[in-house]
Amino acid sequence: MEKQVPGTGKSSFDLIDARELFERLSLEKASTFVDLGCGRGEYAIEAALRIGERGAVYAIDLWEEGLVILGTEGEFRGLPQLKAIIADICAALPLQDQSTDVCFAATVLHDLVREGCADRTLEEASRILRPQGILAIVEFKKFDGHPGPPIDVKLSPDQVEQIVAAHGFTRKEFTEIGPYNYLITFHPPVALNNG
Ligand SMILES: C[S@@+](CC[C@H](N)C(=O)[O-])C[C@H]1O[C@@H](n2cnc3c(N)ncnc32)[C@H](O)[C@@H]1O
Question: Is the C-beta atom of 93 inside 6 A of ligand 1?
């Protein structure tokens, strides 16, 4: 049976300040960007335009319809660096160890907490990030009402930091990006050399 995932079909892209967000991510040409729970992929398109054809954007979701929309848009815009992948982000990600410069999840972490698998996703993010890479989490501010999920599902910056820090990530930067959302970036855990 198909896995039912919360949040399917919803996008936060129109609510945020994209210029501020991508400035904070400082994407370099030819880098690798992974968009976890990409939806119809507006962030993935923006990232693909910025990193250019020598880079790679892996946009991952279980929502097939969203990925079809994204694939069509990528072809229309001539973005061969953009790859739409149907996969469960609560399972092993189809990416090599230390292959990723930016691992990005916009308004997805609260869904993963609801699905009970945020820890698994963060373990995978830690595995695929390069030592100098960043994890970037966008979430809704914790207020009552729309837009976004109910207040008890929304995650405060402290909650996000607690969930993510439990996997050895350390906070880099906090930024408000528009009236409803914030971005927190993290450095990946430092790999211990036991050799
Ligand atoms: C609220 S939407 C956000 C979409 C997009 N990141 C944005 O902000 O525009 C959450 C997305 O996460 C996806 N999602 C949730 N759980 C998932 C899982 N376990 N595996 C893959 N995708 C998942 C949903 O299908 C949905 O597209």
Answer: no
Assigned domain for 8 exists: no
Give residue 24's Cα distance to chain centre: 14
153 CB less than 6 Å from ligand 1?
Answer: no
Residue 143 belongs to a domain with what CATH number? Answer: 3.40.50.150
- Give yes or no for residue 12 CB within 6 A of ligand 1: yes
For residues 69 and 158, give the distance between their C-alpha atoms in angstroms, rounded to a whole number: 34
For residue 89, the ligand 1 atom closest to its alpha carbon is: 20
Q: How far is CA 79 from CA 51, 66, 86, 90, 134, in A?
A: 10, 17, 18, 27, 23
Confidence of residue 195 (pLDDT cuts 50, 70, 90): very low
Answer whether residue 2 is part of any domain: no
As for how many domains the chain has, the answer is 1
Q: % helix / strand / coil in the chain, to the nearest 5? A: 30, 25, 45
Pairing of strands 129-140, 181-187: antiparallel
Walk across the sheet containing 100-106 and list its strands: 82-86, 56-61, 32-36, 100-106, 129-140, 181-187, 170-176
pLDDT digits (tens, 9 = 90+) for 46-97: 999 999 999 999 999 999 999 999 999 999 999 999 999 999 999 999 999 9
Quick: pLDDT tens for 98-138. Answer: 999 999 999 999 999 999 999 999 999 999 999 999 999 99
